[in-house]
Amino acid sequence: MPPDESKIRTLPMWLAVGFAARCARLVQPYFRVGYPKAPKNVLGDLERAITIAERFAAQGAGDPGYTADADGDHAVDIAGYVQRWAIDRTVGNYSDSAAGAAYAAGAAADIVEACSWANADLVYANATRAIRGALQCPEVATQIHNELGLLLARIGREPLSATAPFPAQWLSKSVS
Question: Which of 22, 61, 149, 165 is most buried (CB neighbours < 10 A)?
């Protein structure tokens, strides 16, 4: 059963952000498989959204001044564009994995925007969306469930402060 937001809220915020970004990263290859003709700018936007979320989680802080990336694209625009692009191409050719990847990446971009606004409620809501989107990919769903279980158990043994950065070493293996 996919986790609901109340379960994700038991994680410190930056751990939730880091795990959501990890989930988006795990399903990123399935976006490429599901949408092989995706323009490079869509793939670049997807990569940029995940990378920024990973960076915020690793530093344990968003960037209050962050409103746009170097190209002037707002994170929300990235999320909306990636999701709309994928949804437009999913009609009649639905792929759980590709659609889940698009949803997870879009939610990762929304996390970036929520971090810039310092809005914890939106951060947790979007982290939950990213994780649930990634769980639509059967190829990695078991790994995601297992890693979430590891994180929840570890938090029980080794509590982190609400502002602690994401300890990526807590997870079983890294994403290449």
Answer: 22
Q: Is residue 129 part of a domain?
A: yes
What mean pLDDT comes out for the span 29-55? 80
Tell me whether residue 162 is in a domain: no
The token pair at 81 is: 């564009």
Helical packing angle, 13-34 and 138-157, nearest 10°? 170
Instruction: Give the sign of the dihedral formed by CA 114, CA 59, CA 24, CA 4.
Output: negative
Question: Residue 51: which of 73, 9, 84, 18 has the closest Cα?
Answer: 18
Does 97 fall in a domain?
yes
pLDDT in tens, 73-83: 455 555 566 66
**pLDDT per residue as tens digits for the range 111-130:** 777 776 667 888 888 888 88
Tokens of 42: 């869509």
